[in-house]
């Protein structure tokens, strides 16, 4: 099938992205390697520990997937996965996998720490491979923009790992918003106040003064990848707590924000925000050791989005709360004294409100007003299988990069605001810069470690 003839220019990117996304041809079965069994997707898993193990299991369960290659910097993770797929070729370096398996694979999933998402996914797309990438799409705003443009130009199938977006709950919420059931939207409040997350994923910092010997099963150089080299220390980076560090992760809002934003973004058809500002944990803000190295254990971010046909006015305030910051009590009280969902979004409309608890069905408020409302008749989808089916010629994925890329950009603008708290940052999406604060622009794209530059970026 035809490939898209023209790439989307940076200047016209945001205005034309929806049209471009619709115009992208599906490579479908024509994209499948000639050596593949009929109607089989030859797939490589990059990152098979932690969330990668979960992703691997989901791809394994699709009858039309053949796992042919596995990659992980941790030999223990790799061995465990190899025992499940003894015929799959194994690699510790994703660069070698993409080079040696170029003619043997059709698709990859990228399930590694945030700081290496772009380098892997971009190279895979440049090689013409379909890509399933965990959230957030990338570590930096500039990476997201480049990866989104590349995916549109290449015409490959893509899916962001917001796996709840394919569920009945989120898809129903999108439909309710689009149908105008609660009228025009006046305000949106999003939150993720999962208590266990503070202990498990949000270290107070600072970094330990001395490193320790790297365990023999871990390739620390490959794990560090594009980030600055740091001395290895146990229990604070690998396998899971890397999210707390600015070098490697994007904080709680960058990670879980993609889940909570998704239905709101799609339902309202949001575009790039006009401004963003953040309030943060006071102890973090006052500590130079912490605020230059880790993410805070709580933040409150406010975006001002341009209004549209779904909003009451020409500006929509959208607020995010996590850690020690919670939505206003008057908003929580709308749930009639019931425990307010720790992870959720709520939209306040001119005719009512829509509560979207994470992983659950949406709730229309006040409940007595909407007791006769029939929820949309939608089914639950497997997000991973939907990606596979699209690669094999099926319908478009739920969270393709042309749609989820701009959303991730907006979320990551919030992480920039966190670094410069209490400062309203005015955003120019066309030129991809903050117009009122030059210092903020340096956080849009980091400098990669020597030897890890990405060609074309």
Brief rundown of the structure:
The chain has 457 residues and is α/β, with parallel strands linked by helices.
Question: SSE layout and pairings?
Answer:
Blueprint: H1 13-23, E1 41-46, H2 51-60, E2 65-71, H3 75-84, E3 89-91, H4 94-100, E4 107-110, H5 117-126, E5 130-133, H6 141-154, E6 158-160, H7 168-178, E7 185-192, H8 195-201, H9 220-224, H10 251-268, E8 275-280, H11 282-285, H12 288-291, E9 299-306, E10 315-322, H13 329-332, E11 343-349, E12 353-357, E13 363-365, H14 383-391, H15 401-419, E14 425-428, E15 433-434, H16 438-441
Parallel strand pairs: 1-2, 1-4, 2-3, 4-5, 5-6, 7-10
Antiparallel strand pairs: 7-11, 8-9, 8-14, 9-10, 11-12, 12-13, 14-15
Helix pairs in contact: 5-6, 6-15, 7-10, 10-15
> Rg, please?
22 Å
Mean pLDDT reading: 91
For the termini, the CA-CA separation is 28 Å
Write down the CATH class of the largest domain: Alpha Beta
Helix content: 25-40%
The CATH fourth-level homologous superfamily of the largest domain: Dihydrodipicolinate Reductase, domain 2
Low-confidence stretches: 1-37
Assign the CATH topology of the largest domain. Answer: Dihydrodipicolinate Reductase, domain 2
Strand order of the largest sheet: 13-12-11-7-10-9-8-14-15
Total helical segments: 16
Can you tell me the overall shape? globular
**Largest sheet properties:** 9 strands, mixed
């Amino acid at each position: 099938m035809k490939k898209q003839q023209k790439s989307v220019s940076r200047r016209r990117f945001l205005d034309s992205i929806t049209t471009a996304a619709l115009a992208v041809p599906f490579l479908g079965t024509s994209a499948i390697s000639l050596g593949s069994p009929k109607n089989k997707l030859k797939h490589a898993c990059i990152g098979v520990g932690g969330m990668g193990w979960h992703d691997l299991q989901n791809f394994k369960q699709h009858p039309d997937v053949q796992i042919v290659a596995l990659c992980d910097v941790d030999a223990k993770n790799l061995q465990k996965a190899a025992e499940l797929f003894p015929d799959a070729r194994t690699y510790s370096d994703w660069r070698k996998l993409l080079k040696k398996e170029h003619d043997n694979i059709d698709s990859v999933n990228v399930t590694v720490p945030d700081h290496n998402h772009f380098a892997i996914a971009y190279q895979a797309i440049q090689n013409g491979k379909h890509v399933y990438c965990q959230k957030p799409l990338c570590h930096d705003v500039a990476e997201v923009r480049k990866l989104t443009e590349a995916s549109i130009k290449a015409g490959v199938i893509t899916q962001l790992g917001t796996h709840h977006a394919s569920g009945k709950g989120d898809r129903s919420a999108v439909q309710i918003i689009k149908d105008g059931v609660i009228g025009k939207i006046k305000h949106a409040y999003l939150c993720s106040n999962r208590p266990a997350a503070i202990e498990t994923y949000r270290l107070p910092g600072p970094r330990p003064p001395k490193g320790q010997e790297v365990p023999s099963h871990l390739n620390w150089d490959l794990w560090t990848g594009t980030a600055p080299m740091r001395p290895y220390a146990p229990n604070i980076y690998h396998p899971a707590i890397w999210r707390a560090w600015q070098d490697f992760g994007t904080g709680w809002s960058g990670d879980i924000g993609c889940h909570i934003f998704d239905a709101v973004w799609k339902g309202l058809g949001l575009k790039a925000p006009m401004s963003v500002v953040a309030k943060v944990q006071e102890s973090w803000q006052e500590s130079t050791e912490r605020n230059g190295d880790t993410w805070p254990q709580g933040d409150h971010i406010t975006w001002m989005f341009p209004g549209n046909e779904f909003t009451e006015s020409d500006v929509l305030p959208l607020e995010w709360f996590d850690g020690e910051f919670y939505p206003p009590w008057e908003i929580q009280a709308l749930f009639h004294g019931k425990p307010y969902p720790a992870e959720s979004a709520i939209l306040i409309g001119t005719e009512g409100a829509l509560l979207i608890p994470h992983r659950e069905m949406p709730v229309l408020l006040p409940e007595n007003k909407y007791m006769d409302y029939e929820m949309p008749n939608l089914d639950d989808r497997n997000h991973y299988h939907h990606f596979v089916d699209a690669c094999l010629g099926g319908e478009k994925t739920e969270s393709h990069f042309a749609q989820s890329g701009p959303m991730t950009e907006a979320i990551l603008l919030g992480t920039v605001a966190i670094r410069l708290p209490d400062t309203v940052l005015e955003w120019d999406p066309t030129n991809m810069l903050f117009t009122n604060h030059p210092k903020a622009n340096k956080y849009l794209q980091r400098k990669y470690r020597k030897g890890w530059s990405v060609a074309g970026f």
